[in-house]
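User: My instructor asked us to take a sequence, write out its structure as tokens, and then describe one feature of it. I'm not sure where to start. Here is the sequence I was given:
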Amino acid sequence: MRKTTLLTGLVLTLGLGSAAQAQQTTPLAQPVMQVTDATKVLADTVEFIPVETDELIQDRLSCLEQEIPLEFNKQVRGLIDYFTIRNRKYTRRVLERQPLYFPMFEKYLAKHNMPDELKYLAVVESALLPKAVSSAKAVGLWQFMDFTGRDFRLVQNHYLDERMDPEKSTEAACKFLKQLYRMFGSWEMALAAYNCGPGNVRKAITRSGGKKTFWGIYPYLPKETRAYVPSFTALVYAMNHAADHNIHPANPQYPIAADTLLISQPVDLKLLAVQLNLAEDEIINLNPALKLKHIPENVANFPLRIPAMARPRLEENRLAILDSARYKAPARVKLPVSQSPATMMAKAEVAAPDSSVKTFYTVRRNDNLSKIAKEQNVTVEQLKAWNRLSGNTLMANQKLVVFKPETKEPQDLKQKEAPATEATLLASAEEATATHKAAGPNAENLARENAATASLASAKKGTAKKATVEKPQTIHQVQPGDTLWNISRRYNNVSVEQLRKANKLKGDELKPGMKLIVG
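Assistant: Let's start with the prediction itself. The structure tokens for your sequence are:
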């Protein structure tokens, strides 16, 4: 797993310091100036940067040393100066993140019975940034390459990368380091193999004539790995003696109590945070392994971390909150033939038809312009012109303007449906009498009665139809993401129970395209 970490890459770019260089910086670290009224303010704002002797640093390292050797030499001294003099800002930022991750590292190292000081390796690897990505595409706090991550069962797919999961990646790093330690019998050698891979360490052992210590194979290791173990030693020193070098964290970060929520539906994490009265990115930051800012469809029982303080609010109205935070993916559609919008509009009959009626069409999921044009009996070019569309992309629930010719009812149909007048009834009765007169008195009376009855029934039918038109029902066509609860809120707060009763629904399940009576 050869890789250049964020830190070693930076150190190699800037170059390693030395004890001699450190001594040259002493006048800068401890400026000498004649204090006057004009210079007093400036002197107060200069940051005091102590420079310690080799003997003092070596003594401090010997006190810090536990199971992993912390050897002091000119390479280590140069890196200590880098972290305490030349790049103090880096050390300060790492110290701010230390309370957030070190307790968790210590827990897993103790679980695997491994040296506690290995927690500083994550600083070398990623500067304690869970979403860190190196130039070699290593990812996460422990900078796993994709193939090594899969070897340790860290899931990587289109929406999730568990190399960025602090807990799971730490567990995997402990297993990997333990495996390397068993392979080489030395923690320094295990650290070198973690950086450049076991194969490169074996090659260095062979080239060195069989030496099996880090400093014994040092000249034969890759360049970035030669700076790797010294960087580890320097950071152990810098983080433990930062205060002695006047380095203090400005804004320490601390873990917050978190709870796990199992999610089996698409959820927009920003919307969910807003619904729970949290900062917009708070849930996103608690779930760094998510590559997207939402949980996509077809994901079952995803363990989403949320602040524990938000749990009571969620429990009060879980269904409504999750429904309001539902993620709706935009529908992207491509037409088979690509033409410029200007060409399409030039060829299209963009004007609304004479005596046309302006209507609106609500885009459903999986709709496209061709499908809608065919359904509405118009052309794609007209749809694009009427709605000023320059491309072919549509979104679910988007409103499209559609002009349709005004339909005129035939005159004879209007006459048939017109309410019957007294003259019409008499004319109908006389016609029936003339037709059946030859059949005798009984037939004549019967015909007259039948004609009158039919005419009166027709009149009643017309009246009933008119009454129906005057009081139309309000119909809602179900769109993707709709629920009975949010539909009830849209229509004057009609209750969910009323919706069920009016539409004879046995449960709460809705399907896109269903038509519901809502008023």
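For the description part of your assignment, you could build on this observation: Residues 376 and 402 are 8 Å apart (CA to CA). Try explaining in your own words what that tells you about the chain.
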